[in-house]
Design goal:
- The structure holds three protein chains of three kinds.
- By secondary structure, chain B is mainly β.
- Chain B is 9% helix and 35% strand.
- The two termini of chain B are 25 Å apart.
- Chain C is α/β, with parallel strands linked by helices.
- Helix content of chain C is 29%, strand content 23%.
- An eight-stranded mixed beta sheet of chain C has the order 5-6-4-14-15-16-13-17.
- Classes of the chains: A alpha+beta, B mainly beta, C alpha/beta.
- Chains A and B meet through helix 18 of A and helix 1 of B.
- Strand 31 (590-591) of chain A pairs antiparallel with strand 17 of chain C.
């Protein structure tokens, strides 16, 4: 023990020296103080080496806590790792690989770890029993919100989250294999070797940085050599096999349907920060035909007085710190074990040069070899004994009070190693609903029903012996490979011994009178279990929720079974009847950012661009979301003071000259076949079989429940060929609907359909000079006269060798066309169009101007087609065929959908000229009180109309069409824009439709 | 995420598919002879069984074909996959 | 004895907490009851409580297949609000909010109702228009709901990301100030304890296997795993499993059961002052009193009774959370679970009588039932006691799917609540 900086580091060259790399010292800080450790350490082992015992404060009572385990089950040693934007609260010191420059801080204490004001909670602790908050904090009533709850919230919560965006990146990846092996302890390695040698595609996932599991922590031998060498050799062989992928630092956290496993690879958590271009973590979906679950087991503590003090440690963790890390967690130890395995800790401590005061084992007799070995090491054996209390404080354990046959003795100690037996890690077997099975032999739950494709081997299955684990693992690996069609010649089994593993159950030392903790992290005590029982919270789910047992960040890995068994003892139930809490993924907590991966910022969801996107940006367009698409909203020019000025200019230009708008985002579906016409007659309310070739028609589609689903124009290019257009928002939905109608309802119809939205770019050309513009584009050989292409006509016209379609349809109410060209020519055609348009004095226009003009014309759009309106509400009732069946026909006739008092489409104008209207305002009768009973409808869309020189709107109003001219009230609760409005026709511009036929 | 055996494309991940709900329900007709109750039954009433369920799926990001799936609603195990319009093949549960 | 107060806590603390009585009894079923409630979740227990308290019907049993409060009551994200679009929904949920306000005292049980404010984010022009329509409709109905700009939303909820570079930038938000959260288990336990004290028998581990009817079709009792029990009135409040229970009386329902996932993070010191919901990018988040972020995910697309859901659903929700709260990326997901929600075609519940005399049903709350718990129990109790719908429940009949008088919050909200 020569190293002053690391007083508890075992000397190199001793009987036990550990396997950290002493040539690579690493510096780190804890609570601002500098320490050093070695490569291969965890933060916990380095803190032990440095002699740091006090690591944190407990959740509720702020009791001093140290390091309890050597793995992911750690309930006590939770710290804030790193700082600033990378701060990670509640990080287990036992799983963090030490790196140079590591910064850690204690949490849930103020002002400091050693002096924590809220430790006063310990004095008031008689009040703070399980569920106490349900019984109080109610008086006076207003205090809950203002006083009590804010206090509770501030006290709760452990660590502090980062307050800035995480600078790191996360990746997602997918993998497929024949055999997934989870865990690389003896069973996992043997399974991976057996499956890998057969040629099956194998993925081996190990949570730790090194392969080997418990082999790294024990002084066992395989083939007469230290077991860790076997692990290294097996790892070497596996890595050399081309069909095997070894993934260390990878936690398999969940089992999902169809044999998919979720796994998290910690790519750069063992360095200060990820290198450029390297993700912090990688989130894997692994689809595996078979899975060998060899996740091992977790040691179970025992509940006794003072069992939370710094220096009380799981017996197997003590061995890990000795054998793997070469650090000595205590110099004077008492071992408290209910099973043979715990005795190994005494032996290892002795071998490491520590003094072991006693092995306390409640069993009346144990294997003679154990007692002989203990005696040889100068260790007292106290059979039939219990630790009833451990004394100590923030500086750690000072003594253990042991009771043997009713007699108490005080043993001076700074380390209490505890083992209550081993709990197989059953989590992955339960994520899909499988229930674990109680084993009387092991006094614990073992895997019961297994999910499809999974076998369990080794300690995870309750097979604790080394030789047995190796053999069972090998068998499981070979069987999994065989199930995928691979076989290998049987290989000789490695030689190893099965140590004794006998165990007698002991959950709780009933003699203890001091605070005895069941759930260390959530401060759930033995008394809380008794209280829950007394108050009737006896089902383990009620116990969990009432006391918070097992709900901390360790998910009850060291506490659940003890708590459940204590409740079983109180109720007199058998453990097989009590059952256990089904664990939920993730097995260990997983960073939220890892789930999101690269789906962030601009890449959060895909963005769709039309062929004209670049042109729009070059020409100054302001873009707006339209579902996944971006569309030009308006094209501001320099000197225009706001968006409204721009939009007014665009509308005026269209109505007086010409404008061009990119409408490529509208859905387009190509429908062909002998029965195409019959098909359309069944999906639209109006008739398309009578539509002449070369003509377009506006159509309305209902859902089967009678409400309007979508609208758009459909054009006929041949007897058996139609092109349908849908709204942008509904494009995918309509396609799916049509396919359903054809494939599920009327498969006998000879019709085929395909979405061609992406294949065509489409531009609306609108305004008095629209024809002139298009004539210039197509040239003198193409006749676009009113006779050749009348209103609602459509034609296929080649344009310099490329096929185009020209539709004479109008959303704006002007003389208008829509020009469709193959998308790869979209940008070029737009450029040509715009050059001609500009020369004529026209301009591009965006969705805002388009919206203004459709409101001026009283055309319905998304605000009116909102899934709650029927055709009659929108003034489209007369389109509905009375002669035939179509989707939605019958249900549209239901009483509530035919009711005369349904809100119906009207126009509105402000009474006070020039006043702005508000969309969403509700319509009340003139002079009526603003209460829900007087609600008669609402304003769906508003616009400033340059044509009307004032604000106009569309509204759905009860009995609307009969009320043109009536003055009503528009109720605006938000902007104090209450005002009277006049109901009018929804068509504000050119009601006769002269312009569009011009 | 389910792994679904599309009858036309082979096994694919669930995210490629859309579930269309209960299968083997007949659209009522002729329209003039069916009352609103029968229509409401067709549109809204569902077996919603705990156990085997026959349902329609669309391979939306694939062949765009609708087909039938027999699936256990507790274990999520897919018991059978068969084309639209085909009669229901028996499965072990045998509904 | 048995009343909770700081004084009783203190007295019991000094007595070593040895004298606390059971919070509810564990009675054996009697041969007959005046009414039987199937399902001891929040809604069922509330129904029994109000039957006993307000209608004098105390000879009531609540039968529970598992442990009380173990269904969706114990699995939800606890959001309470009433800013719904339709008058009928507003009335129902606002009735509940009013009961929430005094519930801890009513039950002598701290249910930790915490009106922290519910912020609903708008990400596009369509959202803005829909939410503004909501705000106006709510104000007309006398329900608080206000519109905030993105900057005001950020002020109300500092961790919120309103950067314009987001894929779906936050353009504004509707704020319901008296919306919030409550401690879900305490709601079930509080109602259970209060109902028990009024004489209601809560019988756990008692699964209903059949519904008995007479020659006229009227109910006469239930068959259970703990024997047959006679009754003339059965109220089915078995969220998720409604179709299964109702099929015992040959009643087919307009319902589908979907798995709905939720998750919590590790607990941290206070970071989220309110509830934030985004329907457009599918995320709901708040922070519990214990410090965990409570996050609601979406439903799977297929019906299921498994209480598990697809990993891609969780993933989809968490990328939305990271988008809205980039500072939470490093926080860790602790637990992810599923509940089973039964969903109606218009996303509004069904409360009332059924074609079978004596059989009542309260179901179809979809993803938003928790918030309605007190109101739902209150109006359902009145409906059962009087054998006619409570006025607030009257629009929520099964017949609406035939008549078309839907209360279509599905189209209104676009997605789950």
């Amino acid at each position: 023990m020569s190293d002053m900086a690391q007083p508890n580091r075992l000397p190199a060259g001793g009987a036990i020296e550990g396997r950290v790399d002493r040539n690579r010292p690493l510096a780190f800080t804890f609570d601002g103080k500098s320490y050093s450790g070695y490569a291969g350490d965890t933060l916990a082992s380095a803190l032990i080496a440095a002699g740091v015992k006090l690591i944190g404060r407990s959740f509720k009572y702020h009791r001093p806590r140290g390091i309890f385990s050597a793995g992911p089950e750690e309930p006590n040693a939770l710290i804030e790792l790193r700082g600033g934007a990378r701060r990670e609260p509640n990080t287990r010191a036992t799983t963090i690989e030490l790196y140079d420059g590591l910064e850690a801080a204690s949490q849930n204490r103020w002002p400091s770890l050693a002096f924590d004001i809220l430790a006063i909670n310990q004095i008031a602790s008689p009040l703070f029993v399980g569920g106490f908050y349900y019984k109080t904090f109610m008086w006076p009533a207003s205090f809950w919100e203002k006083v009590y709850e804010p206090l509770i919230r501030r006290a709760a919560g452990l660590g502090r989250a980062s307050e800035s965006p995480d600078p790191d990146h996360y990746e997602k990846a997918y993998a497929f294999c024949d055999v997934l092996v989870v865990g690389s302890g003896p069973a996992g390695l043997a399974a991976a070797l057996a499956a890998g040698r057969s040629g099956a595609r194998v993925i081996l996932c190990e949570d730790d940085a090194q392969l080997g599991g418990r082999l790294l922590s024990e002084r066992q031998t395989i083939d007469d050599a230290p077991a860790h060498l076997f692990a290294a050799a097996a790892g070497g062989e596996l890595r050399s096999l081309p069909n095997v992928c070894v993934m260390s630092r990878t936690q398999v956290f969940g089992a999902y349907d169809s044999e998919v496993y979720g796994a998290l690879e910690r790519v750069a958590d063992h360095v200060t920060a990820p290198a450029a271009g390297v993700p912090r973590q990688r989130f894997w979906h692994i689809a595996a035909k078979r899975c060998v679950n060899a996740m091992g087991a977790t040691e179970r503590p025992i509940v006794f007085g003072g069992n939370d003090r710094p220096g009380v440690m799981l017996a197997s963790a003590v061995r890990t710190y000795l054998n793997r890390f070469g650090v000595l967690p205590g110099r004077k130890a008492v071992v408290f074990t209910t099973n043979d395995d715990g005795w190994r800790t005494a032996a290892d401590l002795v071998a490491a040069g520590a003094q072991v005061e006693a092995v306390v084992d409640p069993r009346a007799s144990v294997d003679e070899n154990l007692t002989k070995a203990a005696a040889a090491g100068g260790v007292r054996v106290l059979l039939g004994g219990y630790i009833v209390n451990v004394t100590g404080g923030a500086r750690g354990v000072t003594s253990a009070i042991v009771s043997v046959a009713g007699k108490r003795q005080i043993l001076t100690a700074d380390l209490v190693a505890v083992s209550g037996g081993w709990n197989p890690q059953v989590a992955l077997t339960t994520h899909r609903g499988g229930k674990p099975r109680w084993s009387d032999a092991l006094s614990t739950f073992v895997p019961g029903d297994l999910p499809d494709g999974m076998t369990v081997a080794g300690a995870a299955n309750g097979d604790l012996g080394l030789a047995e684990s190796l053999r069972k693992g090998s068998e499981a690996g070979a069987a999994a490979a065989a199930a995928c069609g691979f076989s290998a010649a049987p290989a000789p089994q490695p030689r190893a011994e099965d140590e004794p593993t006998a165990v007698a159950p002991l959950w709780h030392v009933a003699e203890s009178r001091h605070k005895a903790f069941v759930d260390l992290q959530n401060d759930v005590t033995a008394d809380d279990i008794t209280l829950a029982h007394a108050e009737g919270f006896r089902s383990i789910e009620h116990l969990k929720r009432y006391t918070t047992l097992g709900m901390a960040t360790d998910q009850g890995k060291t506490s659940n079974l003890n708590g459940h068994a204590m409740m079983a003892a109180l109720t007199g139930q058998a453990m097989s009847d009590v059952g256990t809490i089904l664990s939920r993924p993730p097995h260990q907590p997983v960073a939220i950012g890892a789930f999101a991966g690269h789906h962030r910022d601009r890449h959060f969801r895909p963005t769709r661009h039309t062929a004209g996107h670049a042109w729009a940006l070059e020409n100054g367009a302001v873009m707006v979301e339209a579902g996944p698409w971006l569309r030009p909203q308006y094209f501001p020019r320099s000197g225009e003071k706001d968006w409204l000025t721009t939009v007014v200019r665009e509308v005026r230009t269209v109505r007086s000259v010409v404008g061009v708008c990119d409408v490529s985002t509208l859905g387009r579906i190509d429908i062909q076949g002998r029965d195409a016409a019959a098909f359309l007659d069944r999906v639209y309310v109006n008739t398309f079989s009578t539509l002449p070739v070369g003509k377009a028609r506006y159509g309305v589609m209902l859902r089967e429940d009678g409400f309007v689903m979508d609208d758009g124009t459909t054009s006929r290019f041949a007897e058996d060929h139609y092109v349908m257009s849908t709204t942008t928002a509904n494009a995918a939905k309509i396609m799916q609907h049509l396919e359903f109608c054809h494939q599920a309802l009327w498969p006998e119809l000879d019709v085929s359909m395909v979405s061609v939205t992406e294949q065509w770019s489409q531009y609306a050309v609108a305004g008095p000079k629209a024809r002139e513009l298009l004539m210039q584009l197509y040239g003198p050989d193409v006749d676009l006269s009113n006779d050749a292409l009348p209103y609602m006509g459509c034609r296929e016209i080649p344009l310099r060798g490329i096929p185009t379609r020209l539709f004479r349809i109008s959303f704006s109410g002007e003389l208008a066309y829509e020009l469709a060209v193959p998308a790869r020519y979209g940008a070029a055609v737009l450029e040509a169009l715009m050059a001609l348009c500009g020369a004529l004095g026209g301009c591009p226009y965006g969705t805002e101007a388009q919206s203004v003009m459709r409101i001026e014309k009283g055309h319905v759009a998304g605000n009116e087609l909102n899934g709650q309106t029927v055709a009659r509400d929108l003034g489209l009732g007369r389109m509905m065929s009375t002669k035939r069946d179509y989707i939605g026909r019958v249900m549209a006739g239901r009483p509530a959908l035919m009711a005369p008092d349904r809100p119906t489409l009207v126009g509105i104008r402000p009474v006070e000229k020039g006043r702005r209207l508000t969309a969403g305002a509700h319509i009340l009768p003139g002079g009526a009180a603003a209460v829900a009973a007087n609600d008669q409808g609402y304003v769906t869309s508003v616009a400033y109309s340059p044509t009307c020189e004032g604000w106009i709107g569309l509204a759905l109003v009860v009995n609307g069409p009969a009320r043109h001219g009536e003055r009503v009230h528009a109720f605006d609760a938000m902007r104090n824009n209450d005002q009277d409005v006049v109901i009018c026709s929804p068509v504000f511009v050119d009601p006769e439709g002269v312009r569009l036929r011009g | 995420m389910l792994l679904i055996l599309c009858p036309y494309c082979g096994p694919r991940a669930e995210i490629e598919f859309r579930c269309g709900g209960e299968s083997h329900i007949e659209r009522p007709g002729p329209y003039s002879e069916v009352d609103d109750g029968a229509w409401a039954d067709y549109l809204f009433t569902r077996k919603n069984p705990k156990g085997e369920h026959r349902e329609r799926w669309l391979h939306a990001a694939g062949c765009r074909q609708w087909f039938n799936v027999a699936r256990d609603t507790v274990s999520h195990t897919i018991l059978a996959v068969y084309p639209m319009g085909k009669t229901r093949p028996p499965t072990e549960a045998g509904t | 004895m048995g009343t909770f107060s700081f004084g009783s806590l203190l007295r019991n603390a000094m007595a070593g907490h040895k004298d606390w009585p059971r919070q509810w009894r564990a009675p054996d079923p009697k041969p007959a009851y005046d009414a039987i409630i199937v399902g001891a979740g929040g809604h069922g227990l509330a129904t029994a409580y109000y039957l006993a308290k307000e209608h004098g019907v105390r000879n009531v049993a609540v039968l529970e297949k598992g442990w009380l409060g173990g269904g969706n009551t114990g699995r939800n994200t606890t959001i309470i609000r009433s800013n719904y679009l339709w008058e009928e929904s507003e009335a129902l949920y606002d009735h509940a909010v009013k009961l929430w306000e005094g519930l801890s005292h009513e039950l002598n049980y701290n249910v930790m109702y915490s009106p922290r404010g519910v912020l609903m984010l708008a990400h596009n022009i369509h959202d803005i228009q829909v939410f503004k329509r909501h705000v106006h409709a709510n104000r007309l109905a006398g329900i608080d709901n206000e519109w905030l700009t993105a900057e005001q939303a950020k002020e109300f909820c500092p961790p919120l990301n309103i950067a314009p570079g987001m894929r779906y930038p936050v353009l504004g938000a509707a704020l319901r100030r008296r919306g919030g959260v409550a401690r879900y288990d305490a709601v079930a336990w509080g109602y259970a304890r209060a109902a028990d004290r009024l004489g209601v028998d809560i019988i756990q581990n008692c699964e209903v296997k059949g519904i008995r009817r007479d020659a006229n079709g009227a109910v006469t009792g239930v068959e259970t795993t703990r024997g047959d029990i006679a009754t003339k009135k059965i109220g089915v409040v078995a969220a998720g499993h409604t179709s299964v229970v109702m099929s015992m009386a040959d009643v087919r329902m307009p319902l589908e059961s979907f798995p709905l996932q939720a998750l919590v993070s590790e607990p941290v010191k206070p970071v989220m002052p309110c509830v934030v919901m985004s329907n457009t990018i599918h995320a709901y988040i708040s922070q519990s009193d214990k410090g965990e972020l409570v996050i609601g995910a979406g439903t799977d697309q297929y019906i299921s009774y498994s209480q598990t859901g697809g990993l891609h659903i969780t993933t989809h929700t968490l990328d939305a959370i990271c988008e809205l709260f980039p500072m939470f990326r490093r926080m860790r997901m602790l637990r992810n679970w599923g509940g089973i929600v039964d969903v109606t075609p218009d996303r509004s519940p069904i409360i009332g009588k059924t074609p079978v005399p004596g059989l009542f049903v309260n179901c179809g709350w979809g993803t938003g039932g928790f918030k309605a718990t007190p109101g739902s129990g209150h109006v359902f109790a009145a409906t059962i006691a009087r054998d006619e719908p409570h006025p607030i429940a009257a629009p929520f009949t099964m017949e609406r799917f035939v008549t078309g008088r839907l209360i279509d919050e599905a189209a209104a909200a676009a997605v789950a609540h």
